[in-house]
Structure to design on (276 residues):
């Protein structure tokens, strides 16, 4: 079955004046227009193509892949707004439509918006929605505490930053756990720090406990190497200074320094840390 909004692997069946027709294992066919046809090809060659509806609502294939596919989230630019809704740049000739009722806030031309792409069952069209929370569900979690997870930064709150977890759940990174600049749409790695009542997910952008020592220690070593083997930081340094220089908390800094000291890779003096 040829799937709209997804990457399909299809065979070249035959040529036509408009391009080549591709076929799947169930004998479904779709046109790959001339502009996307490879310079050299053979019948029965396989191609990876993205399939969507063209301006005349006909399925069409493209070897250009969009910035977002069905079921995914991405930060997209609004190209124009008409009486029907907003049209977003997703990397294809035909723009991605976002109806007014699917806009969390009224979209404006040249604005950037985090959206979810889905197939509208009524129209069989791919559409976007900036009401991303309605596509997330924490009722049945597929993650556990201390799991490594993929994150997409969603929207800020008074106490931190909301994040999309593994494209399925909603999580929260608290302000005191953010040690670098992050923006809506950023894709990051994180860890499930805690699952609170109601399946609310507390996420950390670093690693937890002993897992955090190794990457943080490596960061300190890199900083030492880049600064002629010296850092003007100690366990008495201001937490904000540590955060600005190393993008980590003072607690994690002290753990990493302790690890490096035990390995005899650094010297700790009153005026800072020295590379051995």
């Amino acid at each position: 079955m040829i799937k709209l909004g997804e990457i399909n692997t299809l065979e070249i069946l035959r040529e036509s004046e408009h391009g080549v027709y591709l076929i799947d294992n169930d004998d479904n066919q779709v046109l790959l227009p001339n502009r996307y046809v490879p310079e050299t090809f053979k019948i029965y060659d396989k191609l990876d193509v993205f399939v969507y509806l063209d301006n005349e609502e006909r399925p069409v294939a493209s070897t250009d892949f969009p910035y977002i596919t069905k079921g995914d989230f991405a930060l997209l630019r609004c190209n124009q707004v008409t009486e029907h809704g907003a049209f977003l740049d997703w990397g294809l000739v035909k723009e991605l439509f976002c109806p007014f009722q699917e806009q969390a806030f009224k979209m404006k031309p040249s604005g950037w918006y985090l959206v979810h792409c889905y197939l509208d069952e009524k129209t069989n069209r791919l559409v976007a929605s900036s009401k991303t929370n309605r596509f997330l569900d924490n009722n049945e979690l597929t993650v556990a505490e201390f799991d490594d997870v993929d994150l997409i930064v969603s929207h800020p709150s008074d106490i931190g930053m909301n994040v999309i977890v593994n494209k399925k759940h909603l999580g929260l990174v608290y302000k005191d756990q953010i040690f670098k600049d992050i923006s809506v749409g950023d894709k990051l790695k994180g860890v499930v720090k805690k699952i609170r009542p109601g399946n609310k997910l507390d996420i950390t952008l670093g690693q937890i406990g002993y897992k955090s020592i190794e990457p943080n220690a490596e960061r300190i070593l890199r900083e030492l190497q880049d600064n002629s083997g010296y850092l003007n930081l100690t366990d008495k340094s201001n937490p904000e200074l540590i955060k600005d220089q190393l993008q980590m908390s003072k607690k994690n800094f002290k753990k990493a320094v302790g690890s490096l000291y035990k390995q005899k890779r650094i010297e700790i003096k009153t005026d800072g840390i020295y590379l051995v």
